[in-house]
Specification:
The chain is built from 14 helices and 15 strands. It is of the alpha/beta class and 373 residues long. The chain folds into two domains: 119 residues, Alpha-Beta Complex (Aspartate Aminotransferase, domain 1); 221 residues, Type I PLP-dependent aspartate aminotransferase-like (Major domain) (Aspartate Aminotransferase, domain 2, 3-Layer(aba) Sandwich). The strands form four sheets. The protein has a seven-stranded mixed beta sheet, with helices on both faces. A four-stranded antiparallel beta sheet has the order 11-12-15-14, covered by helices on one side. α9 links the parallel β8 and β9. α4 packs parallel to α11 and α5 crosses α10. The structure holds 4'-deoxy-4'-aminopyridoxal-5'-phosphate. It is an enzyme of class 2 (transferase).
Length: 373
C-alpha cells in the first residue's frame, strides 16, 4: 500500500535520452511582433508546385478511405523516373521519417551515430531518440570532411548520416569523396546519404549516391518531395537501398504513412520533369546573382558559402552581425534562418526565392553593412 500511495503522486518519467533532446526548431514565417513575413527560412520552392501535381491533388480520392499502405503507384513512378526496382523503394512521411527509422532500425543504446558538424538537426534527434550517442565529426571550412568522419568510426559506430548537398551549409561532396567515405566504412555500418537537395545539383555533378545504394548492402539514399517538387505540405519522402534495408524500414514505418492525396500528387509531380528542370535553372541563376552581390560586400565581412542547394549560408564576420541582419531583414518583410542552436550564431541561411526578392535582400544587406561600417 505504502508503495502504491507514493507512486500515485508520481508522474511518468521521460527516458533520459529523450529528456536530452532539443526539439527541432522550424523556420519561421512571422516576425516577433506577429507580422506575416515572406518565408525564405525553410528551403521551399519559390515557383510553387507543378500544375500537373496540383491537378492530381484536386482530383484526390475520398478522405474516408485509408491510403494504399504500400504507396505502390508512387513507388512504381519513382522506379520509372530513377531506374530503380520499386521493390527497393520505401516511402515515408517526409524523408524525416525515413531518417528516424534508419537510426531506429540500426542503432540503439550503447551505439554511436556519426555525422558532420553543421549538418541537418534531425540527425542528432534521430540518434538520441533511439538511445544512441550522437557523434559530430570536425568540418572542413563548413563542409563535410571525409577524413575527420572516418577518424571517428569505431566499433560502436552503427550509422553515418551525410546530407549531400548539406543543410545548412550548402556544401557538396563530389562522387569521388562520397565513394571514399563509403569505402572507408566497415560493411556493418549503415551510410545514409540524405539527398533532400539532390535535384538542385547540376546533373553533371551527380554524387553517385544512387549507384552506391544500388550496389552495396550498407547504403541508404533518401530523397524528398518537399524541396524541388514543391510538396512540403504533403509530407512525402522516399528511400532506396537493398531489400534488407527496405525490409527493415518497412517493419517499423507507420502502416499508412503517406496520405492518399500525397501519393497521387507526388506521382503526378514526378511526371513533370520540365518543372523540375525549370526550378533547378531558376535556382542556379538567381543563386549565382545573389552570391555575386554578397561577394561584393566581402570588405564588410559578409561571406556567402559556396552552395549546390536552394539556399545560401551567409557568414557575418565584420561589424554587421547575423543577429542584426536577421532583425533588419524581418523589418523589411523577410524571414530567413538563424541557427545559433546549431553552432552558427554568425550565419544566416537564406532560401533562394524569386529574383526580385533576392535583389531586395542583397540590397538591404548592402545598406545594413555599409551603415554599420
Ligand atoms: N534532409 C535535409 C538535409 C533537409 O534539409 C530536410 C528538410 N529541412 C529534410 C531532410 C527533411 O525533409 P522532409 O521531411 O520534408 O522530406
Amino acid at each position: 500500500r505504502a508503495v502504491d500511495d507514493s507512486r500515485s503522486q508520481m508522474s511518468p518519467r521521460m527516458k533520459p535520452w529523450i529528456a536530452a533532446i532539443h526539439a527541432y526548431v522550424p523556420g519561421k514565417s512571422r516576425a516577433d511582433d506577429g507580422r506575416e513575413l515572406l518565408k525564405l527560412s525553410a528551403n521551399e520552392n519559390p515557383l510553387g508546385t507543378s500544375p500537373l501535381a496540383l491537378a492530381a491533388r484536386a482530383a484526390a480520392k475520398a478522405p474516408s478511405l485509408y491510403p494504399d499502405p504500400d504507396s505502390a503507384e508512387l513507388r512504381a513512378a519513382i522506379g520509372r523516373v530513377h531506374g530503380i526496382d520499386p521493390a527497393r523503394v520505401v516511402c515515408g512521411t517526409g524523408s524525416d521519417e525515413l531518417l528516424n527509422l534508419a537510426a531506429q532500425a540500426f542503432a540503439g543504446p550503447g551505439d554511436e551515430v556519426l555525422f558532420p558538424r553543421y549538418s541537418f538537426a534531425v540527425y542528432d534527434i534521430a540518434a538520441r531518440r533511439c538511445g544512441a550517442q550522437p557523434v559530430e565529426a570536425r568540418d572542413a571550412d563548413y563542409g563535410a570532411d571525409v577524413d575527420a568522419l572516418l577518424a571517428c568510426v569505431n566499433e560502436r559506430t552503427r550509422v553515418v548520416f551525410i546530407a549531400n548537398p548539406n543543410n545548412p551549409t550548402g556544401s557538396f561532396l563530389p562522387a569521388a569523396e562520397l565513394a571514399r567515405l563509403h569505402a572507408g566504412l566497415p560493411g556493418d555500418v549503415l551510410l545514409v546519404i540524405d539527398q533532400a537537395y539532390a535535384e538542385y545539383v547540376d546533373p553533371a555533378d551527380d554524387d553517385g549516391g544512387l549507384a552506391l545504394a544500388a550496389a552495396h548492402e550498407n547504403v541508404l539514399v533518401t530523397r524528398t518531395f518537399s524541396k524541388i517538387y514543391g510538396l512540403a505540405g504533403e509530407r512525402i519522402g522516399w528511400g532506396t537501398g537493398t531489400p534488407h534495408l527496405v525490409d527493415a524500414l518497412n517493419r517499423i514505418r507507420g502502416p499508412f504513412n503517406v496520405t492518399a492525396t500525397g501519393q497521387s500528387t507526388a506521382a503526378a509531380a514526378l511526371e513533370d520533369q520540365a518543372f523540375v528542370t525549370a526550378s533547378r535553372e531558376h535556382n542556379r541563376e538567381v543563386r549565382a546573382r545573389f552570391v555575386a552581390a554578397l561577394e561584393a560586400l566581402g570588405n564588410h565581412g559578409l561571406r556567402p558559402l559556396p552552395s549546390q542547394a536552394n539556399f545560401v549560408l551567409v557568414l557575418f564576420e565584420g561589424a554587421l552581425s547575423a543577429e542584426t541582419a536577421l532583425r533588419g531583414l524581418a523589418e523589411r518583410g523577410f524571414a530567413v534562418r538563424h541557427l545559433p542552436g546549431q553552432g552558427l550564431p554568425q550565419g544566416l541561411r537564406i532560401t533562394i526565392g524569386t529574383a526580385e526578392h533576392m535583389d531586395v535582400i542583397a540590397d538591404s544587406l548592402a545598406r545594413m553593412a555599409e551603415g554599420s561600417a
